[in-house]
Recover the amino acids of this structure.
């Protein structure tokens, strides 16, 4: 059997979902028997080197770069999975939705209680920096998503079961104990 | 209790912080609001923090920090209310009163508010005004009512129609509500003398009582269908000196009103059922958790309890038997559907926010005040009494093999005879439509918004745990109804309104799903939207309690059974389209930071 090729990325997320992938513990040895990782922080491959079967997305889109990465994933992966609450519905970063960006930036760089040294009141605007979006978008607003795996983060067992089912072409059987998280 | 001060209210509840709900309800009734100063006073009096008071206060629909008016109108906004002309009524109120819904008049006289289903689906449009229910409103009647309010009339003098049937006309109820009992079965028939069952069970051991209930195979009538005998047995066996029996009379599922009718007509039977449960599990305290919407029944029910105590059927040495002790008190909710969920109900009765608990432990092990607790629906407890009278074999002869006995249904919507029907399990939807004279039926909602929307090709399905399980709400929609816009959207909004907010899934996804539904209704939908809705329905199953787990049901069951209604609204052949535009999305940030969009 050819190995399924898997890519992963973290957009506006906290890397907790990726930590949960690692939480499959020793099963990761079994996993690499059936999948090969491509672009992913797990193996530090930065650019797609081939078309992938499965893309796992952590986090929603909070800036222009997230959007580019996500679209890149859509182009290069047959199946896209929104992994975790942030990817599915914006999650914690989306707490800023509804607050004008100007206010957010002022709080972060000028007026906020943890701001100490910014005497010149600079709000970063280097052209190299990604540009913030008006709000944090869940992935499905930006590209078509095929599957959603809930959790914050999704349990390792859930990620494991879902990946194995996809690789083997089986129905996903996700009982309550595996998907419940809050 | 006119003129009670916060102090006297606190004293009435012995400065017990677990009675915070009762305290807030009394204060709200007294002052028509619970101000910051009052919060401070309550916190001080109960020796808890202001935040503790505040978090309970902010949770419940019927509590308000600002005055809600000398006359406070709560107009039902359930689906059936709309079907029966709610919009005209709302308009009439706004015109006559001179303010919009959600507002109070400048002089503080009248406040207009919307509220979720008040359990009057068979006599809509209906409203609650100062804890009194007004049914079958017409624009003309609204004008009269507002005139009376402006004249400062006492609320009890504002009824013009004669009071309703049965005990609705009892002097302690005095209400225009009607029972509409259209088919009586074993539960609704009056054939048990008060005390009869207590005399019988006290000759038996608690174990024998539990065995009889277990043998009958009766399952809970509140919706979840847990075997009642088993629940009692678990609680009996759970370690703990003090145990509690709760009767769940929260009846918040839109379209359900049968518990209201049982409470009105069969209160004695219910209290006897609670007492019997107490005997069986070894509990001495019973609490009837009653939704605030039924506050008009308070005096009557308290009177029934008091009389039962005097007659020796409640209190100490019940039925003359030493050491058989059982007390019942009423605990009111304050407008929160989720408080019907048993662990949320217990939290609420402890004076807290009605947030469901994580399980295990289950209430039978650790419930009210950490003690083993049985929570049963009104109808379950009444049925248990009848089982005790006629025996489990008799009970099993009714219904089907898997669903024994009868079910009391609340039927409303497009039919000639809405009301309460007691039938044996196993009736088909067709049988029911014949019985109630439904016409041009397009769909039937079985089990309320958390249930399923059934299409005509499935009308031969039966009511029962093996097929269509239901807590008893059936709503009929004829062909003139716009299912997606008038029904599914309203139900989805109901879940959004009523989510307790603990789980991110239940707090957020129904909103996202509603937006998708609106997108489809606006003709902007694509096929992927329908698939996404089904996928999100699965994710909602990850939620902690039944509310979140079923919040997608209006959408998913209508997609499954009425998919054509969705596909006919899709205007393009495109599979995916959300209208997301990166250039537009970065505009605000570019302006805020003086950057050029180089995306
Ligand atoms: C959101 C929600 C609301 C509920 N509302 C009610 C209700 O109003 N009345 C009721 O008896 N059960 C309600 N239930 C079911 C209760 O949690 C519980 O299962 C029931 O009261 C147990 O009694 P039974 O076994 O006699 O049915 C609700 C459940 C959920 C999840
Ligand atoms: S879903 Fe939770 S764990 Fe995953 S990225 Fe978001 S916050 Fe982190
Ligand atoms: S599912 Fe909804 S109502 Fe139930 S606990 Fe979670 S947030 Fe609260």
């Amino acid at each position: 059997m050819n190995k399924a090729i898997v890519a992963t990325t973290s957009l506006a997320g906290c890397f907790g979902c990726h930590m949960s992938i690692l939480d499959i513990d020793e099963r990761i040895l079994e996993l690499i028997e059936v999948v090969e990782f491509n672009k992913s922080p797990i193996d530090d491959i930065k650019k797609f080197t081939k078309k992938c079967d499965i893309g796992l997305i952590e986090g929603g889109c909070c800036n222009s770069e997230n959007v580019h990465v996500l679209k890149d994933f859509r182009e290069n992966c047959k199946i896209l999975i929104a992994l975790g609450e942030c990817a599915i519905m914006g999650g914690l970063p989306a707490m800023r939705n509804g607050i004008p960006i100007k206010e957010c930036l002022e709080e972060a760089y000028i007026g906020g209680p943890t701001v100490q040294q910014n005497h010149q009141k600079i709000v970063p605007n280097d052209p190299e920096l990604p540009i913030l979006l008006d709000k944090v978008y869940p992935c499905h607003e930006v590209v078509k998503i095929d599957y959603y795996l809930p959790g914050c983060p999704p349990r390792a067992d859930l990620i494991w079961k879902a990946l194995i089912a996809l690789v083997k072409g089986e129905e996903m059987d996700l009982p309550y104990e595996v998907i419940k998280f809050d | 209790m006119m003129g009670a001060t916060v102090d006297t209210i606190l004293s009435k509840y012995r400065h017990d912080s677990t009675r915070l709900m009762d305290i807030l309800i009394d204060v709200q009734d007294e002052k028509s609001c619970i101000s910051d100063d009052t919060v401070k006073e309550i916190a001080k009096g109960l020796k808890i923090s202001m935040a503790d008071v505040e978090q309970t206060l902010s949770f419940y629909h019927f509590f308000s920090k600002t005055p809600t008016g000398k006359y406070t109108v709560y107009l039902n906004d359930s689906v059936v209310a709309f079907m029966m002309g709610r919009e005209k009524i709302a308009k009439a109120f706004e015109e006559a009163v001179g303010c919009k819904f959600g507002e109070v008049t400048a002089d503080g006289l009248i406040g207009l508010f919307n509220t979720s289903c008040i359990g009057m689906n068979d006599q809509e449009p209906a409203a609650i005004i100062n804890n009194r229910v007004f049914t079958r409103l017409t624009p003309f009647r609204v004008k009269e009512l507002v005139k009376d309010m402006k004249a400062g009339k006492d609320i009890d003098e504002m009824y013009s129609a004669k009071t309703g049937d049965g005990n609705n006309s009892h002097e302690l109820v005095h209400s225009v509500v009607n029972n509409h009992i259209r088919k009586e079965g074993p539960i609704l028939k009056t054939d048990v003398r008060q005390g009869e069952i207590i005399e019988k069970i006290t000759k038996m051991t608690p174990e024998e009582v539990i065995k009889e209930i277990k043998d009958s195979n009766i399952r809970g009538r509140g919706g979840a269908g847990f075997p009642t005998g088993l629940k009692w047995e678990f609680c009996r066996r759970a370690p703990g000196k003090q145990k509690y029996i709760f009767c769940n009379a929260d009846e918040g599922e839109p379209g359900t009103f049968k518990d209201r009718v049982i409470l009105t007509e069969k209160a004695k039977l219910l209290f006897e059922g609670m007492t019997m449960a107490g005997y069986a599990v070894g509990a001495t305290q019973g609490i009837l958790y009653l939704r605030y919407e039924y506050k008009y029944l308070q005096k009557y029910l308290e009177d029934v309890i008091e009389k039962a105590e005097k007659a020796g059927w409640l209190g100490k040495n019940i039925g003359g038997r030493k050491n058989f002790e059982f007390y019942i008190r009423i605990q009111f909710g304050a407008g929160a559907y989720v408080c019907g969920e048993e662990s949320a109900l217990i939290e609420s009765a402890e004076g807290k926010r009605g947030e469901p608990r994580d399980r295990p432990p289950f209430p039978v092990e650790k419930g009210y005040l950490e003690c083993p607790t049985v929570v049963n629906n009104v109808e379950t407890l009444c049925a248990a009494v009848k089982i005790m009278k006629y025996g489990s074999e008799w009970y099993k002869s009714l219904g089907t093999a898997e669903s024994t006995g009868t079910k009391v249904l609340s039927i409303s919507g497009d039919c000639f005879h809405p009301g309460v029907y007691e039938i044996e399990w196993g009736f088909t939807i067709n049988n029911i439509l014949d019985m109630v004279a439904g016409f041009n039926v397009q769909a039937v909602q079985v089990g309320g918004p958390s249930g399923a929307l059934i299409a005509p090709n499935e009308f031969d399905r039966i009511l029962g745990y093996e097929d269509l399980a239901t807590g008893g709400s059936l709503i009929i929609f004829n062909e003139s109804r716009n299912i997606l816009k008038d029904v599914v959207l309203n139900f989805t909004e109901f879940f959004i309104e009523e989510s307790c907010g603990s789980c991110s899934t239940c707090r957020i996804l129904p909103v996202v799903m509603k937006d998708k539904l609106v997108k489809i209704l606006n003709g902007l939908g694509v096929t992927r939207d329908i698939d996404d809705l089904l996928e999100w329905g699965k994710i909602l199953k990850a939620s902690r309690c039944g509310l979140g787990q079923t919040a997608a049901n209006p959408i998913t069951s209508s997609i499954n059974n009425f998919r054509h209604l969705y596909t006919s609204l899709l205007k393009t052949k495109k599979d995916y389209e959300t209208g997301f535009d990166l250039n537009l999305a970065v505009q605000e940030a570019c302006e805020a930071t003086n950057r050029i969009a180089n995306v």
